[in-house]
Amino acid sequence: MLPDAFRYPEAEPHRSALKRYAHLIGFTAALTLLLIMIGAWVRLTDAGLGCPDWPGCYGKLTPKGASSQIAQAVAEQGGEHGPVSMGKAWREMVHRYIASGLGLLIIAIAVLAWRLRERLEQSPALPMALVGVVIFQGMLGMWTVTMLLKPAIVTLHLAGGLLTFALLVWLYARQLREPRLRDPEALHELRKPALIGLVLLCLQILLGGWTSTNYAALACIDLPTCQGRWWPPMNFADAFQVFRELGRTNDGEFLPREALTAIHMMHRIGALIVVGWLGWLGVRLLRIEGAAPLGRALLLLVIIQFCLGLSNVWFSLPINVAVAHTGGAALLLALMVVLNFRASKSMLQV
Fold first, then answer.
1. Among this protein's residues, is 92 annotated catalytic?
2. Which residues does 226 contact at the CB level (< 8 Å), separation at least 6?
């Protein structure tokens, strides 16, 4: 909750500064969500190596400046079906441009948090930590390219983007006036279930990232079975070997189909667990006056996200559906962060 300066008109100068700070955080969070979805689009269109160096494109600021190098790479790979093309280079660089802007916005948030710390009555530790997270995220972006899309690095890069988004959502929630609850104890009792739901969702998102990174989304193309079986042959040892090359086992062999099946099936099973737990949480929230809108939003988004996941399999991974599925995961994460924030603060209203 914001201090009185944010709520009462008699402190208008302070109120204006704090509003701008809150709006900046909200805008940065929205930009992070957009960047996560663009990152999914880059990955799903195989544009991650559209510019095989970092931070520029063949040492240039834009793909246009590197047109001759891109044309040569396209000729050497025998056409634009390979990892390099002008379109893929632009997709990769737009992602980098937005990421750079996001980094500058987070630095601005940290500076403002430090300058307004007394008016906010909030520690600037979280905004400062965000700066560290975004720096590490930039390094992961570099390693994603220079280490040739190793699954562990790509998945960590996705996780870093979602962590940045989650921290921004938590920081934004701190700036808002919390709705009054008639029974704050009821929401307070959901602290542990909400935390468990957040952990389950994070694990499922990591499984989804691992599935996408290893191109295992279409290892099973039938529903509700997989390859015509409820429990098809699976190779868990190679599936979840973290430190290996893309598409290879730890011994350098091609990743077998059974390993891709194991990755896909674990994501399916995880989806059922998360849908069940978050669905139950949503129903519980509907019974708490003042928290019902959050419960309705959670239930609606769980249903949409589950349907998007089914559509990915049923329609053979259309790009727009797959990108929307990534965005849905991020929005679910935001809702769970807000729920955990409100549950942890609910007893302050007593």
1. yes
2. 219, 220, 232, 261, 264, 265, 268
